[in-house]
Design brief:
By secondary structure, this protein is mainly alpha-helical. Helices cover 66% and strands 0% of the residues. It is built from 22 helices and no strands.
Amino acid sequence: MKAPHRLKKAAHGFPPAPVPLAAAARGAVALALPLLLGVWSGAVVPAVIAGIGALWGVSQDGADPYRLRVRRLGGMGLAAAAGLLAGELALRSGHPAAVPRCLVALALPAGSVSLRGPLGSVCGMHLLLGATIGSGIPVPGPWWHAPLALLAGVGLVVALSAAPWLWRRYGIERAAVLAVYRAASRALAAAGSPAAEDARRHLTAALDHAHQVMGRHLARPGRPRPEPAALRDAFHTAVRLGEVASALVWEGRPLPRSATEVPLLLAARLLPPPGRRIGGLRPELPGPVGDPPAPGDDRTGHDGHPSAPVGDLTGSVDVEAGPRGGPGSPGLRALAALVAEAGRARPDELPVRLPAAPRHGRAAQLRYTVLLAACVLLAQLCAQALHGPRGYWLPMTVAFVYKPDFGPVARRALHRCAGTVAGVAAIGAVTLLTTDTYALIGAVAAFGALMAVGVRHHYALATTGLTAIVFVLVDLLGDHRALYGTRILDTALAAAIVLVAHLALWPRSAAERATALTEAALAAADRYRRLAPEVTPAQRHALRRGAYHLLAEARRAVAHALSEPGRPGRRVPDRPDLPDLVEAVAAAERLCDAVSARTLRAAPGPGARPAPRCAGACPVGG
């Protein structure tokens, strides 16, 4: 039996991320519905504030499990409402210094929590965003109307985002685990080629994502219900498959298609399509895993796939024939053992959670907090000098841009400016064609869908949608000034304020973070090397997953640091250069591959690389 088409189609190459159509639809509905209700009922101002809440909610509507989505959106909504209330009260006080004081007072807690984790970062940013809007846009009516309207908009996004839970409760977990099997198939297909290490890194990323998604189910004591139990078994098999794939990649020899399709067939067996009874689908593997059939061989079908006699899942992997007809491959023997034992996991064999990356130190948190407050204060003073009232755009842009935990600050600032220009041009073109209210609401729906796609694909694209939507919302509030050029200049000024402050006063922030993560990753790789031969399989899998996870985090941090503008030739004593960190991480990854192969008793065969040793900047011995 061939691998199912739906799996095999995604196994070759690295397909681009699909367009999130469901998220785009949610973004369109969440932003257009409050405005339509406000126009029909005459309550336009509360509707616009609800639209702002929906706008920020769409920016945080991810593809993670529903429980985490609700938690993040709920925390974001409460923080934004608190900031909005504080900014509104400062604006209503009428004191000229009340608004700057309010923004600085809220920038301090916002900065202090932003480097403590993803949830704290989101809540801190939206606390400050709420304050900028509350202090920059006068809202008539009682003081409590605007925060409630904002929470209503966020609540609409929560309802739309969590609604699929009712009919596809474990769909996210299933998709995450299935992605591991597809990545494993691609890694096996790339074995023996220059793309092998990149394919193995894609497998690590897929395993990390699945591990985070499955964490709640792995930590539950007792016997879960049938579907979560099947997902746990499939994930445990995927963890073992990752170890086998690393060993086969390290062996460095091309594998026949009959071997590379094994992960897809395991997925078809352990993760049948929704609605089909788990365990009822037991596809068979292609014939023996040996040499690829020669052209014209009667074992080759018309499509080039092996069509040898079909065996069942437990007996199809032939370990007597190696990938090149030589002695049996230990990696293939491990693959055969994995196939034979697939779906027989025990709860105590599952590593419950991944190790946490080291957090930013107190000095880094304090420096970021002070710099954020200073940038917000300077932006607000510039806004008051240039625009007077409604100068919220400058501090709002600072709150969006100065997020070093979201990626390189310089790149984020550049994308913010580019997205603002594109958004201004897009909404300008729309208003040239029509100024009808319903047409503008339709444009908001379209830009909301665009923003939802941009949140997952590119920050500049998300900024394009957000900028256009904000212009329409402000227009519905009665501010019909043509501020297109002004907002572009405001964005550029705010980005310049952030870049000057960050690069002048904290130029090595990304490099320091990369160094700390690399040191933690190298220590985890060393633990895996030392302890893997001695510990139980469960402990070995936990050590291995922790090492690869931290190495992936370190690689991302180093790439982040390399993207930041630097001063050529500047070297800090007793600190490794970023290229040294790149080499250290790569060497440690190869070491972990070699340890996986050694643990599976993979003796180096013809053409296999010797186990690498980390030298230079890498303290992990081999």
